[in-house]
Design brief:
By secondary structure, the protein is mainly α. It has a domain of 135 residues. Helices cover 42% and strands 5% of the residues. It contains 7 helices and 2 strands. The chain has a two-stranded antiparallel ribbon. Helix 4 crosses helix 6 and helix 5 packs across helix 6. The longest helix has 21 residues. The chain is globular and about 45 Å long.
């Protein structure tokens, strides 16, 4: 009887250890805000994850952020030229099926922003993000989130991978967690009257 119990305990320990080894715990993903998740899943401000899954710049790591993304002006050194992004934006507007084909109504945006070491020219990290949508979300709000996450990473309050994960998985949920519940007004409404 003791041998059976002992065998069961050893087997249980082995199975548990095996499960622990094969179970991937993603401690970098922020806790979801359920009410925000429901709102953002319906928002056309989010990219199609099949067309724009996001991609990172392998030259930017947690260990070198003080020499890369935390240096003022660093993103200018890696930002792709409009001669590359405008034709890509035109093609992606068509691929996304947007009825509005005016390039000026979109920002060819990095899902994982350059401020967090996103891949500068990888089409998997770029999409034509509308500036402003009926639900209030758009590129202006995402820009504010990008700056906030950069501040948190550079001040050591958030890891680079946690910030990348938050913005790539659902940038509206990340905005509501790190900036505020409501989107920013477009810049034209923020100017003094």
């Amino acid at each position: 009887m003791v041998r059976i119990v002992l065998s069961a305990l050893v087997l249980g320990a082995l199975v548990g250890a095996s499960l622990a080894i094969h179970t991937k715990v993603n401690d970098l993903e922020p806790a979801p805000i359920h009410s925000a998740e429901t709102i953002s899943r319906r928002s056309p401000a989010l990219p199609d994850p099949n067309m724009t899954p996001g991609a990172v710049n392998p030259s930017v790591t947690q260990s070198n952020i003080d020499a890369t993304i935390c240096v003022r002006g660093w993103t200018r050194t890696v930002r792709p030229l409009e001669s590359y992004t405008d034709p890509l934006k035109r093609r992606q507007i068509e691929t996304y099926g947007y009825s509005d084909r005016q390039l000026a109504d979109y920002e060819e945006d990095h899902l994982i922003p350059l401020e967090l070491g996103g891949a500068p020219s990888d089409p998997r990290n770029l999409w034509p993000e509308p500036h402003q949508l009926a639900d209030g979300w758009g590129s202006y709000s995402k820009d504010r989130l990008e700056n906030r996450l950069n501040e948190l990473v550079c001040s050591g309050q958030l890891s680079l991978n946690a910030a990348r994960s938050a913005i790539a998985s659902d940038w509206i949920v990340a905005y509501q967690r790190y900036v505020g519940l409501e989107p920013d007004a477009p810049p034209s409404t923020l100017l003094p009257q």
